[in-house]
Amino acid sequence: MADFPYHDWLPVVFVALMGISILVYVVLDGFDLGVGILTAAAPEADRDVMVGSIGPFWDANETWLVMAVGLLLVAFPEAHGRILTALYLPATLMLIGLILRGVAFEFRAKAPVSRKAIWDRAFFAGSLIAALTQGYMLGIYVLGLDQSFGSVLFGLLTGVCLAAGYAFIGAVWLLAKTEGSLQWDAASWARKLIWFAAIGMVAISIASPLASPEVFARWFSFPEIILLAPIPLVTLAVFVGLLLALREAPAAGERWIWLPFTLTSAIFVLGFVGLAYSFFPYVVPGELTIWDAAASRSSLMIILVGAGITLPMIAAYSIYAYVVFRGKATALSYE
Amino acid sequence: MDALLLARIQFAANISFHILFPTITIALGWFLLSLKLRINSSGDVAWMDSYRFLVKLFALSFGRGVVSGITMSFQFGTNWPGFMETVGNIAGPLLAYEVMTAFFLEAAFLGIMLFGADRVSNRVHTLATFLVAFGTTMSAFWILVLNSWMHTPQGFEMIDGVAHATDWWAIIFNPSMPYRLVHMLLASGLTVCFLVAGLSALRWWWGDRGPAVMKAMKSAVYMGAALIPLQILAGDLHGLNTLEHQPAKVAAMEGNWETRGNVPVVVFGLPSEESRDNGAFTIEIPNAASLILTKKTDGVVPGLNDFVAEDGTVEHPPVAPVFWGFRVMVGTGMAMLFVSWFVSYRLIRTGQPGTIGAGMLVVMTLSGWVATLAGWYVTEIGRQPWLVTGVLPTGAAAAEHPVPILGLSLAMYLTIYAVLLMAYLGALLHLTRKAAAGKSPSSPIDGAIAVPAE
Asked: In the prediction, which pLDDT does A134 show?
């Protein structure tokens, strides 16, 4: 990787910022999309609490998607055009899913009671569509935006697995944020969904080196294979820990109730690091590096100054918002 | 239909749907803050009722603004890749500053504002309300900076067909920005005034004439009556600014085909680009356009003929939509002036709007949307054939998606927007009817407001 112009450091900083935004988005909107998917499995009486557990957060969580896509747009305009043109239809479907769930969220509380069931269904459908299409786009992206029949099949597989992963992190979120029968339901959902999420991670880990010789070379050459071994090994260890933590939950008590969510977030981070290592410094796999795609350095500098000032503040007040709404969730019904 | 036109319709549909909601939330945020401050200082139950009702309206509108805003951030790349490739060095930082200084702020504190009143002190809750209002306004500021720069670009140089910033101060404070910003903020204020007045009038109509309804109605109607003359003044100044920088747009707005003096205001006409006139039947006010635009009855106003190349290529915007959009906007503004002053007079004299006054307010409930959309169509269609005036033609920025794909996604967007708009209006009616029926809902904000001294 020595032939890349690392002295030109601004694109590296921006791809890191974008990566962090994507990661924060996937964890945060992941759990609230997941809760949306799980509403279909829950008895109607529990849905208000489920929605209440994400109510104060989801607007800010989705803002990380705007941040990530915004950074792609402003820092790597050429890549934004290439990627989103190739993924035009799934991206459109995802947006429609996000719109549907965002509005259903408000309408289910404010529309006449007779229509609540319809908006509940829309909330579930929108959450599921958004999760499936995000997973599909991830699969296609990993295969270098290839859209052959085999790639589409793979995309569908990653779509289902990411949706399961989101539902899983949604379940462990509910485990921590709720009480009573809903909490027991959440634990049993989590114990089932974890296997689908695991299949997804394994599938992507196998497919990306097979699809791309460069990715293969990066992982399976010496000494990289030794140096990188901690990533899959730690992931495996965390996974086993998660299985153990879930086995007794929630009967084991509240003391370790956030452990499954924390471990799941750690797995998301590890998976992301693995992906990032596979493709960096390409922003369109195998085609376009971050240096080729970057906007003018002076414009990036202007944004970086603003980001340096605002991002710590954003982090601080986002954490504050989570602290304000700590503890068990209640229904946030307006009526 | 060709791909460019479909792409433009799709973007227009998205941005039209999007702008409806910020237009409400920008001013409604400040309105809620003022209610909150009044509650803090007086503890008056009547203001609490208004707050509870309007905060729901705010939540309903805000969510819509967020999700349609996400759509916008994708569509820049999916539908207009040439935009970012050419002017991304300027548009990028402005959009990034919007997200970083405004979007996160409003989204994070919205949760506390809506659901956090019993979890934080009243002071923090008031602060959260302020930060949400401040965030929506900052967001409007950055977006209007970018939009104004697309109309009146400066502070950059072109290197190999790509714009590079040379002077950020000049980019931010570009010539049309102050006018557009003031015009839009006032539009938002008027939209909220007429929305609140209209919904209050509906409650009044349904027999709910308690102090809460009357207080909300009075403050909205009086504020509307005060804002509309300011808006007419701001619109006039914005028009003069446009005459200086984008004369073709003004020529299309006026339906003025020839550069000449003594130009009339065409009240009615059917502009046709084939015959290049306003049709056989027109109603005109002699010399009025010259008077408005040059302050002299015989002042020379540039006409559309100045913007046709020697080979006949038309370089001015399509005339009819700009012409009609302008008339709808001005007509709605005039109706706002009449209704707000008439009802103010009734309210001051009798304390009640009267059946006619209340009826007019109900009819005008969504007038802010009509005027705002019409105004945006005037200014955006009036910029054509340019995406960035003099820098980037609209056609050069479009993506080359196959027509069926564009048609399919457009159909999906239009369907969902139509459904959502109906549902939104239905929810407004439902909330109003419920409030009027006196079933004061138990609201999540009850806690802090019931104990304002907390």
From this structure: 93
The identity of residue B26, as a single letter, is: I
Tell me the average pLDDT of chain B.
86
**Which are the contacts of B212, defined by CB distance < 8 A and separation ≥ 6?**
B45, B46, B47, B49, B50
Alpha-carbon gap, residue A110 to A114, rounded angstroms: 11
Boundaries of domain holding A21: 10-324
Number of folded domains in chain A? 1
Distance CA B221, CA B196 (A): 9
Mean pLDDT confidence for B94-104: 86
Q: What is the pLDDT of residue B219?
A: 92
Lowest-confidence region among A30-34, B4-8, B177-181: B4-8
> Once rounded to an integer, what is the mean pLDDT over residues B31-54?
85
More confident residue, A257 or B130: B130
Tell the burial category of A206 from Cβ atoms under 10 Å away from its Cβ (0-12, 13-18, 19+): exposed
What residue numbers bound the domain in which B336 lies?
A: 15-247+319-450
Tens of pLDDT, residue by residue over A223-248, are 888 888 888 888 899 999 999 888 88
B268 contacts chain A (CB < 8 A): no
CB B190 within 8 A of CB B368: yes
Cβ <8 Å between A59 and B111: yes
At residue B107, does pLDDT exceed 70?
yes
> What does the alpha-carbon distance between residue B83 and residue B104 come to, in Å, rounded to a whole number?
25
For residue B111, being part of any structural domain is answered with: yes
Whether residue B259 lies inside any domain: the answer is no
When divided into structural domains, chain B yields a total of 1
Q: What one-letter code names the amino acid at B355? A: T
Taking the C-alpha atoms of residue A57 and residue A59, their distance in angstroms, rounded to an integer, is 6
Residue B96 belongs to a domain: yes
* B424's tokens: 């939104």
- pLDDT for the residue numbered B1: 57
Element (H, E) at A132: helix A116-142
In Å, how far is B107's CA from the nearest CA of chain A? 5
> Which residues of chain B lie closer than 8 angstroms to A81, CB-CB?
77, 81, 84-85, 399
Pairs of residues, one from chain A and one from chain B, whose beta carbons lie less than 8 Å apart: 215
Rounded to the nearest angstrom, the gap between the alpha carbon of residue B373 and the centroid of all alpha carbons in its chain is 6
Both tokens of B146, joined, read 């970018």
Token pair for A44? 């109607």
CB contact under 8 A, B107 and A63: yes
> Can you tell me the distance from the alpha carbon of B202 to that of B361, in angstroms, rounded to the nearest whole number?
8
Prediction ipTM score: 0.82
Using the predicted structure, report yes or no on whether residue B444 has a pLDDT greater than 70. Answer: no
* Strand ranges in B247-401 using DSSP code E only, listed in sequence order: 265-268, 283-285, 386-388, 392-393
CA distance B435 to B430: 9
Report helix, strand and coil shares of chain A as percent, to nearest 5: 80, 0, 20
- How far apart (Å, rounded) are the C-alpha atoms in residues B144 and A169? 39
Residue B426 burial class via C-beta count within 10 angstroms: exposed 0-12, middle 13-18, buried 19 and up? middle
The per-residue pLDDT for range B114-160, each reduced to its tens digit, is 888 788 888 888 999 999 999 999 999 999 999 999 999 999 999 98
Q: Quick check: is A2 in a domain?
A: no
| Token couple for B369 | 């949307």
The 3 state secondary structure assigned to A54-113 is HCCCHHHHHHHHHHHHHHHHHHCHHHHHHHHHHCHHHHHHHHHHHHHHHHHHHHHHHCCH
Chain B hits for A317, CB-CB cut-off 8 Å, are 104-105, 108-109
CA distance B409 to chain A (A): 7
Packed helices B104-115 and A297-324: angle between N→C axes, nearest 10 degrees: 10
Dihedrals φ, ψ of B2, to 5°?
Answer: -90, 160
Residue B257 falls inside a structural domain: no
pTM: 0.87
Flag whether residue B92 sits within 8 Å of chain A, measured between CB atoms. yes
